[in-house]
Amino acid sequence: MTFTDAWSLFLAGLLALGLASLLVNLAFSAWASRRATRITADAPMISVLVPARNEAHNIEACLRSLLAQDYPNYEVIALDDDSTDATGTILDRLAQHDARLRVIHNRQPLPPGVNGKSRACQSLAEQARGDWLLFVDADTVHRADSIRAGVERALGLDVALFSAIPQQTMGSWGERLFTPAGFALIYNFVSPWRIYLERALRPFNAAAIGQYLLVRRDAYFVSGGHDAIRDQILDDVAMGKLIKRRGYRIALSNGDWVRCRMYRGFREMAAGFSKNAFSILHGSLAMSAVFVAACIALFLWPPIELIAGALNGAVNWPAVVAIALTTANFALVNRRIGQPWWIGLLYPLQIVIGVGILLNSIRWRYTGRARWKGRTLTGAALR
Questions:
Q1: Structure confidence by residue, pLDDT tens digits, 71-96
Q2: Assigned domain for 283 exists
Q3: What is the extent of the structural domain holding 59?
Q4: N or C: at which end does the chain have fewer Cβ atoms within 10 angstroms?
Q5: Alpha helices, DSSP H only, in 190-265?
């Protein structure tokens, strides 16, 4: 056996372990569903909180789905965060026709080093009356049982914070060129079992998704709320760590009762992930270098070896196995987030784009060029 064959076999073994880990992670969602406590009476009051900045193309569908919930005891509060489009006008129109919707308008400039979404979420929480606070992104659309599904799982799992990974809507090939791979990284490297079972905060055992984040009111305010993480660009992950640091249990699970279209087109997708990528790796150049090296070794080396072997009239079977395992992994994640399985076949291209996004994120950090929704991200808000 040549060194190349041995190396490809080693990579195939690692990828097999990765696929097994993914299957275990996916099994947690099924287990969490079985633990759900069915609500029949005395439903806790839920405040659904929607921060919105420049979301004119999303906000109406989001709010109409939230106002059509089958949950018996809830309110909806939306905050227009100094939008420069028609978001505020749409919110006011919807509120005129449904008294369950309250609208807050913020026109205050954003202080340097502060995450605008965290400031908006804190303002919403301070106006909320619910026993639980459900933060949802303005680009989400909810099934009629969305609130109920989250609350029943939070109660059944006995957690102070429950977050769901929504189904993802992608309307263009530009979005599909990396977004599914981003979720593949989440499903592979974030362990819901560790997040749920380990009460003490340790590295990589706390995470949440801001698209759907349900937190118990007392735990939120005792922990300091979004004010305590106002300088964090990854506000959802920071919130999970904040709640766990106080000794509360948290959970992350799949959420097929909500859909989200994160970005519209390749340019917006690349900008959105560039905003977060370097922060996901803790702003560490060393960790970024290790991550890029791992991506090349695990995901790009096997296709390169397969092509090189084919050009020489040979088949590198360990490389074939490695490619099959990665394709199966990405295909499973695509199915889980509501996308066609065969998009997993594009994983080499997605990984190349992902590495480019990370490099752009690093460039943004050191040149101060990071912008999102018309705001420049400066100082601590880039952490």
A1: 999 999 999 998 999 999 999 999 99
A2: yes
A3: 28-174+184-263
A4: N
A5: 192-197, 217-223, 235-245
Could you tell me which of 214, 220, 62 has the C-alpha nearest to residue 149?
214
Tokens coding 251: 């959970």
User: Is residue 246 one of the residues assigned to a domain?
Assistant: yes
Query: pTM higher than 0.85 for the full model?
Result: yes
Asked if residue 113 and residue 249 are part of one domain, the reply reads: yes
Residue 332: name the closest of 184, 209, 192 by CA.
Answer: 184
Q: What is the pLDDT of residues 195-253, one digit of tens each?
A: 998 888 876 788 999 999 999 999 999 999 999 999 998 999 999 999 999 999 999 99
Residue 74 near residue 49, CB atoms below 8 Å: no
- Spatial CA neighbour of 143 closest among 261, 259, 260, 262: 259
41 and 56 together in one domain: yes
CA distance 186 to 183: 5
The number of folded domains in the chain is 2
* Burial category of 109 from C-beta neighbours within 10 Å (exposed 0-12, middle 13-18, buried 19 and up): exposed
Whether 195 and 236 share a structural domain: yes
**Is residue 149 located within the same domain as residue 116?**
yes
179 lies in a domain?
no
